[in-house]
Amino acid sequence: MLLAALLTASGLLSARAQCYIGFVYPAGGRQGTTFVCTLGGQALEGVEGAVISGAGVTGRIVEYNKKMNPQEMQVIREQLTELRRMPPPERDASVTNMQTRIERLIEDYVQQPQCDSIANLVLAEITIAKDAPPGPREIRLFTHRGLSNPMAFHVGQLPEFTGEPLPTSHKQILGKEAQSLRRRKREPAKDGKKGDMMGMETMQMAMGMAGPGAQSDVDDDEVAISLPCTVNGQIASGSVDRYRFIARRGQRLVITTLARSLVPYMADAVPGWFQPVLVLCDARGREIAYNDDFRFKPDPVIGCEIPMDGEYILAIHDAIFRGREDFVYRISIGELPFVTSVFPLGGQANVPAGVDVKGINLSESHLTPETRDRAPGIYPLSVRGKGGLFAPPVPFAIDALPDGLEQEPNSTPKQAQRIEPPVIMNGTIGTPGDRDLFLIEGRAGQEIVAEVNARRLDSPLDATLRLTDANGACLAQNDDQEDIGSGINTHHADSYLRVKLPADGTYTLTLADAQHAGGAAYAYRLRVSPPQPDFELRAVPSRLVMPDKGSAGITVHAIRKDGFTGPIRFQIKEPANGFSVSGGPLTGTQTVARLTVKTTLSATEKPVPVIIQGVSTNAGVTWVRDAVGAEDRMQAFLWRHLVPAQELMALVHDKQAQDKKPWKRRR
User: Fold this and answer.
1) What is the CATH number of the domain that holds 473?
2) pLDDT tens-digit map of 10-46
3) Has residue 330 got a pLDDT over 50?
4) Domain carrying residue 190
5) In a shared domain, residues 459 and 558
6) Is the dihedral of CA 57, 385, 206, 204 positive or negative?
7) For residue range 254-278, what is the model confidence (pLDDT) as tens digits?
């Protein structure tokens, strides 16, 4: 029909445009459920499927709605007029469904969206198996000739509430901002949710409170929920979302937010992401708890003990009341497990490790992470809570060098702890103003490296390092060291020193917090060793699209560590599965290579993983490192970051085949 033609006609104009998605709503779901999520982006014409990383989650496309121009909308309005004139004998179910869909398109139409790059909408049906492992995933869309960037998607364990998707936002005009506001239709808080959650009315009666239809003492426009649960929402410009629930005295509630972590960077927003604010109030509007970021992370977390039985209202809004479709959030509420500190932050490979964890609602306080046959790197550490629930994972580092433990007191030169490099010291800046001093014996001309790994392991420590000689003269000091491999962090707070010692003698290394803060969570791993030359790789973008037996270009960034200057050549990790790579090598101090990936395949049914490796050999030592796929993202009109992806994916398409549409329009 004419409508279908209009929905796909722009595919000819943008066949070469790069597929992009800017938000997913909801950005996750519960194990054992099937639901429809909305993905907003551009160049998605002819979308064929959705792929989700990990096991137990599948997706299929049910509908695509492109951004219409005024001429196309006029044609659709004329078609609607013709459908309405159709006599009843000719009006079958297909006509009724078409009329309903056109009416919805007209109702949702925005001539000038606030953000064009997220104005094309795809509806995908997501199915999560009951045994799907909980935690973070990635979702992508693919067309016959395109593959999108990944977006965060989470598998949860709790019952979920999801509001209606936010309509496309109008472009805002200075002085007329109110005219651009479009909010979703929200059901008022009355009797709570149905299904596997206890109704609000039942809970009220059980606690001797008001019966059916009871009103709270604040504006009754919030949504009723029952705990524990996860709520999914989108923040509109100038809006506040409120959720009402009943809690009992003594409950230790944890409220965690995923928002900035769902969309790490926005190119056209300052500070460059959705900055959520959480406020928890009682039924009379008295503030119980507030948080606008958890330590150095923009996503807020509230942990509090409920003071009395009754109703409570949780509100979320942007710090400066911005909003649009990609201001997506997931809030989990209940007596949930949450980790506040971990020590140590890592261990040595193939050596048994013991880790002490502290937090709220945890069922275990000591863990023994698996370190056998683990390559050096950072691994997620899972901590259980009550009822089989898992706390949000925390990072745990595994390194090749031996470990040591900081011994207190060591905050003055006389108390400094003597260490023997190479070693990684595990310690904590335990109190505000604390500092840890270490003594090192050195020789003239000896090169030594001191590196802190803390912020990259979710420690709030803002480290500083200072190296002094026996007379107290400062040889080197450092506060922050940029690490482009840590693409989510905007404050590179981990310190790094590389120094050639001028004489034989004793040297003092001082580690402190730049803001004079401290506490149990301010843990660190301090590497003190001769240089350990090594490298990491980032492959940008995290997707390859090529025609049958064709090729595609990709940029690889080399992160050279501790003065590594060896040549790096590139290969595809076996099994190569029909892919090969050419380009390079990188020599000396070169850090960027433009590579070409080729394929002998005619087509792939869906995107497949590909691993590019960098190989370097020097003095009989060979390094082989896998490249991590990444997306080059802009923050707030200016800064750029390499945001890591879970996988580097490739799509091979048949040049002769027509675009497929294996999905049916949602009725």
Assistant:
1) 2.60.120.380
2) 444 434 578 999 999 999 999 999 999 999 999 999 9
3) yes
4) 170-336
5) no
6) negative
7) 999 999 999 999 999 899 999 999 9
C-alpha to C-alpha distance for 64 and 491, rounded to whole angstroms = 39
**DSSP for 51-103, written as a single string:** EESSSSEEEEEEEEEPPPPHHHHHHHHHHHHHHHHS-GGG--HHHHHHHHHHH
How far apart are the C-alpha atoms of 356 and 379, rounded to whole Å? Answer: 16
Is 573 found in the same domain as 501? no
Query: Is 88 within the bounds of a domain?
Result: no
- The mean pLDDT of the chain is 89
Q: Is 115 part of any domain?
A: no
Q: What confidence tier does 102 reach under pLDDT thresholds 50, 70, 90?
A: confident
* Neighbour order of strands in the sheet with 496-500: 403-405, 423-428, 523-529, 447-453, 496-500
Residues 642 and 539 occupy one common structural domain: yes
What residues have CB less than 8 Å from 592, skipping those under 6 apart?
A: 555, 556, 557, 558, 586
541 located within any domain: yes
Same domain, 204 and 276: yes
Find the radius of gyration of the CA atoms of the chain. 28
Residues 301-317: what's their mean pLDDT?
97
Q: Work out how many domains the chain is built from and give that number.
A: 4
Model confidence at 191, pLDDT cuts 50, 70, 90, reads very low
Q: Are residues 411 and 545 located together in one domain of the fold?
A: no
Q: Tell me the two tokens of residue 162.
A: 């999801």
- Contact predicate 438/418, CB 8 Å: yes
The angle that helices 93-108 and 70-85 make with each other, rounded to 10 degrees, is 140
Residues 525 and 539 in one domain: no
Evaluate whether 645 touches 626 at the Cβ level (below 8 Å).
Answer: no
